[in-house]
From TrEMBL:
<dbReference type="InterPro" id="IPR018389">
    <property type="entry name" value="DctP_fam"/>
</dbReference>
<keyword id="KW-0732">Signal</keyword>
<dbReference type="Pfam" id="PF03480">
    <property type="entry name" value="DctP"/>
</dbReference>
<keyword id="KW-0574">Periplasm</keyword>
<protein>
    <submittedName>
        <fullName>TRAP-type C4-dicarboxylate transport system substrate-binding protein</fullName>
    </submittedName>
</protein>
<dbReference type="GO" id="GO:0042597">
    <property type="term" value="C:periplasmic space"/>
</dbReference>
<dbReference type="GO" id="GO:0055085">
    <property type="term" value="P:transmembrane transport"/>
</dbReference>
<dbReference type="InterPro" id="IPR038404">
    <property type="entry name" value="TRAP_DctP_sf"/>
</dbReference>
<feature type="signal peptide">
    <location>
        <begin position="1"/>
        <end position="24"/>
    </location>
</feature>
Length: 342
């Protein structure tokens, strides 16, 4: 990795004398796969990069690359192998690797993204951080997005009968199972491809948060929105740094970064979505979109699928090395409930 020396040779020598064992000033590269106009770039990643420089007094800086170094599903591996120093992505873009976190994407995970994200961080720290699957990276934050909903381009989806046979874009195994068991046809693709697939007729609808409909500029293609009060599904995200690069940072600067990362950064992630989702809902309603609550029949059908998902996940997570999956899920649910009760 390239190091960025911002001092003169004489000053660098002085620093080496006065800070024995400390790492030299360094620049970290970050690969991100959303455009620079997306709110996650402007309101989350860019400010976090600026904070790192501030709290380390310029000894550690972050350059967000102008283009991603791979597709979204490759970003964990890009960080783990050191191709990029920092990356972010969705855990279940690699579903077999991250079976331990499937529970966070189940239906009814909640619609308070800040509370969700903090609950997931605490669950990760308490029950999952020591699993071998997380080796090779330093976890900087985790996050959820406040409940994904169901969106269609032509008509309202209120009952299981409405959904049957309709083709929906989805992004992971939880969404795939939901759609399949509701009688829909799941089509796997990242959110960044939704517009072209809708325009070409490959799909009839797509699964997104409300903000994603606006931020991925899908409002002309998705005009009917079905709302599940506790979310139809969710998506679990990570922000990670390559472990070797983390270890190369001086302990004092590691401590400074830790103070603005972890639970603090996870909460910040959630707050972004808590601001974006209601604003998007208001904008879509003002544009004349149809926004309706899912029928009790549809919610009941999803609840039945959820119960089966939990039972199957406990078996799969146990096989993946999670010591007590039921306790992990219970800890998340209880933590989220306590946070939202405040």
């Amino acid at each position: 990795m390239t190091r960025n020396f911002r001092t003169t040779t004489a000053l660098a020598a002085a620093l080496l004398i006065t800070t024995a064992g400390a790492s030299a000033a360094q620049n970290l590269t970050m690969s991100s796969w959303v455009p620079s106009t997306h709110f996650l770039h402007t309101d989350f990643f860019a400010p976090f990069a600026a904070q790192i420089a501030e709290v380390t007094e310029g000894r550690v800086t972050v350059t967000i690359l102008p283009a991603p170094l791979g597709n979204p599903a490759q970003h964990w591996e890009l960080a783990r192998t050191g191709v990029a120093d920092i990356t972010w992505g969705n855990f279940t873009y690699e579903p077999e690797r991250f079976v331990s976190l499937w529970f966070a994407e189940f239906p009814n995970a909640g619609t308070d993204a800040e509370a969700q994200s903090v609950a997931l961080w605490r669950t990760y720290q308490a029950h999952l951080a020591d699993l071998p699957v997380f080796d090779g990276v330093e976890m900087l934050a985790v996050g959820l997005f406040g409940g994904g909903q169901l969106h269609h381009g032509a008509t309202q989806m209120l009952t299981p009968a409405d959904i049957a046979g309709q083709k929906f874009r989805m992004g992971g195994p939880i969404q795939e199972r939901l759609l399949t068991e509701l009688g829909a046809v799941p089509v796997a693709a990242p959110a960044t491809r939704a517009y072209e697939m809708l325009e070409s007729g490959v799909i009839d609808g797509s699964l997104h948060t409300m903000e994603s409909v606006v931020n991925f500029r899908l409002e002309d293609a998705l005009t009917h929105h079905t709302i599940f009060p506790e979310g139809l599904y969710d998506a679990a995200f990570f922000v990670v740094m390559n472990s070797a690069r983390w270890d190369s940072i001086a302990p004092a600067d590691q401590a400074a970064i830790e103070a603005i990362a972890g639970e603090t950064l996870s909460a910040t992630w959630g707050r972004q979505f808590d601001a974006q989702n209601p604003a998007a809902t208001e904008a879509l309603a003002a544009a004349g979109h149809t926004i309706a609550q899912a029928s009790p029949e549809l919610i009941g059908a999803v609840d039945t699928i959820y119960d089966a998902m939990v039972a199957d996940w406990i078996v799969a997570a146990t096989e993946a090395g999670v010591p007590d999956p039921a306790t992990v899920l219970g800890y998340y649910v209880e933590t989220y409930a306590a946070l939202t009760a405040r």
